[in-house]
Amino acid sequence: MPEQTPPPERGARPGQEPPAEGVAAPAPSAPPPRAAPLLRTAAVAAAATGIGALAAASTVLFPGPDASAEAPLTLAVRAVFTVAGTVPLVWAAARFLDRRPLAAFGLGRYPKGWAMPLAALLATLLATALFLVAAVAVGAASVDPGAAAGAAPALAVVLPLLVLAQLLPEELVFRGYAQGVLGERFSPWAALLLQAALFAVSAVLVAGTYANAVHLFLLGVFTGVLRMTTGEVWTVLATRTALAAGGLVYTALDLRLLQAVGLWEVLLVFGPALAAVWAVTSLRSRRPDLAAATPDALPGPRRELGQKGVLYDVGSSYLPGQHSRPRWRPDVVDEEMRVIREDLHCTAVTVFGEDLGRLEEAARLALARGLYVWVQPRLVDGGREEAVARLARTAEFSERLREKHPERVGVNVGCELSMFVRGIVPGRDFDARTRSLGLLSPLFPLFNHRLNRLLGELATTARARFGGPLTYGSGTWESVDWTPFDVIGVDYYLDVLTRATYRQGLRRLRATGKPVLVTEFGCCSYEAARYQGGSGGDIMDWDDLDDRRVTGGHVRDERVQAEVIGELLDVYETEDVMGAFVCMFVEGDCRYSPDPARDLDMASFGIVRPPPLESGLSPDDGHWEPKEAFRTLAARYAATVPAEGS
């Protein structure tokens, strides 16, 4: 049987490490070289700051009683300068520095109607009114009701000018261009924080005072979250317009804070912004299709994947009393490896699970069928020492297999260890850590430091016992130091947050110069699953392990799983990816049922369907049916992608 992975390149360019044994070197990148994202962003931000400073200075041409910062004449002059300078600046940067359309930065025509911007606008205005009424009602603030008539002219005249003079230019440059470009090099959260810092520095330089620097940075964070959530800047602009309207109303009513001034300042300023974030997030969770899918980076030439893979579970337990494969039959495993190689046309498989004896046997059977094998031990809620000890044993038997099958065995040291291993992210168990991850995002640098210490220890342990390539299945929230590894591995699912920048995420990883392996991708089998990515299984209620249910009234749709897998294979074949592994062959404890409330297979990532419990048949005995995704994957893996220029 011919080799299933391309032969490694033995020669390396000067200054470049040779590829690890059994690992194909990455193909040369197709896109032409461009300036570094941070440099391009800094240049545009500096130019925008200069335009803002000139616009502010231009108002001295109109001295007199109407020359205050919010006077109509002053704002009109600033609006002319900033719009005339900023709009061409962003357009030219997108076209000549990035060679991408404005829509790629969230600046295109809103394609889904205006539900998101309207929700943010109304939530902000309502929260502003509620906080104002509450402050007055409890005696914490006073207003001049007789001045209410002055609010209407301010809103009608000053607000539109303020949008043109300040809000629109800032959103075009910072939440539009800067956050979009920084996303090419940095994670979404890092890009968000960097643009917030640039925004604060720019605004401070234009204003000539540092008094509001912290306020401006926090405003950049809030608006950056809205940009990341919606994929466009128009919701952000609507929110800021509503916030500015609230500020004008406060001024017109001569609002004075009398008690707990600091607290009420925070509530009146940031309370409405939080309300907008909540409204948009809630709307997106109910209608994920409303989030704008901005055009992604242009694809490169199509190339065949070196490793066409699938994940194979030898048995995993995520909760006490639950196990994905209670019984182990080597004859069934052997037949399923034959199916994976001959029917699915896979060239590689990742075997994972808790029982190391099963892992070794499954790997041996896969190798006998001609597959390249990545071996990944897993243990939910294990400690650091236990993880290292288990990997040592895994590396030892993997080396024995590699000696018999040179260049066809690799070790994956773990999967998303910040969640699986105790002591990196706080939480008594896997479920608690998963639920707390979003709330603890400001502590990611600490978590990543702990994670990389563990990964360094794991890599050292494996190197001492195993001579083949090493990788790690990282989560998208993890920032990994890839120095000890031969191959970069990422569990990369398509969801509402990654859809607009999916290719950029792969290119960030490729920029390290090491081969990139998509260690997990896939989708569940219901309509909304196309937006949920790796969280697609969250619709399953685990409270009663003997009677698990599917919540939310979802309906089975196998086409969704097949379509997402096909869409992602299109990406991988045009992004110089070394290989990709579908999650997964079968989830044996997620049984099919004609009753949607009990159809656990709908909420699984398996590409084959286990039989209903009522049938008396078990997937552990090899009883399953191929799903539509199985047929899609088989057809794609069987197809030969012609080389460029052939």
Automatic annotation (TrEMBL):
Tree of life domain: Bacteria
Annotated Low complexity bias: 18-27
Gene3D superfamilies, A to Z: Glycosidases
Pfam families linked to this entry: Rce1-like (PF02517)
GO biological process, one term: proteolysis
Keywords tagged on the record: Hydrolase, Membrane, Protease, Transmembrane, Transmembrane helix
EC number: 3.4.-.-
Region Disordered, residue ranges: 1-32
PANTHER family per record: MEMBRANE-ASSOCIATED PROTEASE-RELATED, PROTEASE
Protein name stated in the entry: CPBP family glutamic-type intramembrane protease
